[in-house]
Amino acid sequence: MVGPPLAPWHFVTMPDDAADDFALAAEFPAATREHWRQLVAGVLKGAPFDKRLVAKTYDGLAIEPLYGRRPQARAIAGRAPAAPWSLMQRVDHPDPAAANAEALHDLENGATGLSLIFAGAIGAYGYGLPASETAVARALEGIHVDAGIALDLDLGPHMQDAGRGLAALVKRRGVAPAAANIRFGFDPIGAAAVGSAGSLPWSDLVPIFNAAISDLAAQGFRGPFAAADGRAVHNAGGSEAQELAYALAVAVEYLRALEAGGIALATARSMIYFRLAADVDQFLTIAKLRALRMLWARVEAACKLAPAPPVVAAETAWRMMTKRDPYVNMLRATIAVVAAGLGGADAITVLPFTIALGLPERFARRIARNTQLVLLEESNLARVTDPAAGAGGVEDMTEQLCRAAWTQFQEIERAGGAWAALEHGMIQKKVAAVRTERQLAVARRKDAFTGTSDFPDLAEAPVAVLDVSPVAPSSPATLTVEPLPRIRLAEPFEALRDASDRMLARTGTRPKIFLANLGTPSDFTARATFAKNFFAAGGIEAAGNDGFATRDAMIEAFKASGAKLACLCSSNEVYAREAVPATQALRRAGALVWLAGRPGALETELTQAGVSAFVFAGCDALDALRTAHGLIAS
User: Fold this and answer.
1) What pTM was computed for the model?
2) Which of 191, 208, 271, 510 has the most crowded Cβ, counting Cβ within 10 A?
């Protein structure tokens, strides 16, 4: 019987760094960490090293500024050496005939696998196939499931129907089940986690889960059959360790269920695979995928099983996608694919760059496909097994993630397992805390979204998506657990841009703010540029200028702009001389006055003169922009 493996995580101590013995460097004294720290201390002038140079992840894990290499590190087994990952393309059009046309086109142009997305699935994102046998058959018409392609089912609430439908199709075509590379994706815990499951308790779901998998295995399908899908946590804003701990706990829950159904542990282990999100943080994503394999090996060891690499599928992250300036999503996806590939993913799916706007059309699907093809065929990213092995930063983060995830996994186990932890709200509460922290970092633009929260283009051209209405999956009348939400972190800024677009359509102009530039261009250009981009992130158009010869000229320009808000822009030296009288003049002209920059010692004087807000790098930009919208609309 699988017991809860609750021993603390531990590692064999490895050396932090090793000296390189290159002939070119032989004439120079050996560089040491201690000497480097002395030089850094001189630059910091007494400031704390950890505070200034050591970053933290959302799990509180330390990211040091400098690492040595790990000469004794071993590659973490994943894909077969030099084997490419499966290039998966989403099949999510609600019309099975249209889905089939896209799937055929993708396979003819480089895809080596298809991810069948069903309505209501974790990765559906508003669309998806119906779960009927007829829909599955039509979507796969003309596709030879025994031709070496991979199929991965991302199932919704009617997961049994889709699995049975695909099995029936294989049988009807006379294909040997073992010849089909199908990952069936049964994930009742994941369905409950995102609100797609009914009201059955886990004790009632286990026999259904076991029967479905046992039946497919008896027919000769080789699986794997059950997916431990960390995307449920990642899409909700969770941390990397939370995603790993949740996926690990779900996999152990499935392992116990299968064993209780009479399946030997070694066989049950091979019936389970993992799905993780690949994010724009490249090194953290690499470490996360490497850590997952190490964590699963620890579970296997606790079960007295010789470790065997699990199948790990990765999908580029939903929460990093933006509606605004969506072409930047191509760059985000490229970084995520690089990270997933170097981290050892067996299969990768790229979300098309327009997916946040609607159902992607063929160009967006082509870019998603070719992103992987370039990295596989031209960059040869899959040629080296675990290329991050020995890299000090990645090795350190892998170890830290293992410890943090294992600790959180232990907490879930003590709560009774993944299902019980979801029922009690423990997982949701912990994820919500990290989500709040992330959202604050986005609001303060610490976590920036280029084209949305930073450097937006108010005149950007729209992109094309298919004219297909989103699918509204059937929702259970009674939910077993409080569902984890699915968010995109850029949504609050996008909502302000949408409000700006509505005002433009209604009145012919966007919300405006007048830039009251003081002094010469060398005085005001830096802060005027900052202010222009700051307000554009909320869809507020800045009325710029080249400065003014007199204060009266500035007031006339303000009145002519039609703006209610004015933002002072200049250097600290000019503010000390001119900010107060300029504010008073603007207030007399009816302006609501803000100031670009930190007020410092002038705050009281400026506030008394009538400056009502200060905007600067690190302020709560989202709150400021919402306030500005409210003032403009009043």
Assistant:
1) 0.92
2) 191
Quickly list H helices, 482-579: 491-507, 521-536, 551-561, 572-574
Q: How far apart are CA 58 and CA 431, in angstroms?
A: 11
* Residue pair 244/285 in contact by the 8 Å Cβ criterion: no
- The answer to whether 315 and 275 have CB atoms below 8 angstroms apart is yes
Judge contact between 456 and 536, C-beta under 8 A: yes
Residue 18 has pLDDT above 60, yes or no: no
Sign, CA dihedral 469-470-476-479, equals: negative
Q: Read out DSSP for 288-300?
A: HHHHHHHHHHHHH
Instruction: Tell me if 170 sits within 8 A of 184, measured CB to CB.
Output: no
Q: Which residue has the tokens 């470790």?
A: 307
User: How far from chain centre, in Å, is Cα 62?
Assistant: 20
d(CA 396, CA 408): 19
Distance CA 119, CA 110 (A): 26
Query: Which residues, in sequence order, are bridge partners of residue 118?
Result: 129
End-to-end CA distance of the chain: 66
User: What is the rounded distance in angstroms from the CA atom of residue 465 to the CA atom of residue 607?
Assistant: 48
Distances (CA, A) of 399 to 40, 67, 246, 287, 289: 26, 14, 18, 8, 12
* Beta strands 55-56; 62-63: pairing state: antiparallel
pLDDT digit string (tens) for 39-77? 888 888 888 888 888 999 999 999 999 888 888 777 787
Rounded percentage of the chain residues whose pLDDT exceeds 70 = 95
Dist CA 149 CA 340 (whole Å): 20
Cα–Cα dist 597/167, whole Å: 64
Asked if the model's pLDDT at residue 17 lies above 50, the reply is: no
Separation of alpha carbons 17 and 339, rounded Å: 24
Place of tokens 């729209």: 462
State the Rg of the chain over Cα. 28
Q: State how far the Cα of 520 lies from the Cα of 574, in Å rounded to an integer.
A: 9
The residue type of 50 is: D
Q: How many CA within 13 A on the CB side of residue 274? A: 32
